[in-house]
Amino acid sequence: MRNMLLLAVALFLALAAAAPVPPQKPKPKNQVSVSISDRAFSPEKATIKKGQSVLWTNNDDKDHTVDASDASFSSGTLKKKAAYQYTFSKTGKFPYACKLHPREKGAITVE
What pTM was estimated for this model as a whole? Predict the structure, then answer.
């Protein structure tokens, strides 16, 4: 009985080691990431193509917002580790700022 148990465990371990590892989900090619940390957007400026998305992630210990100067997008309040994504469907330059910290500014240029 003990030998059967050891054989079953050995077989299980061999099969588990041979099982394929699922691939990690790659970052979408049509997405640009902007980090909010140390009360700044990084990168502050980015150029993307029409149809691409920008993902802002709050990596700071303070709340922040992402608000377009022309009111075309607004994240609302982003708590620590929260994120906001926006897909740009028009070309142009889109300056934005944090309503809670007006000195925090950035811009997205869409070609």
Answer: 0.74
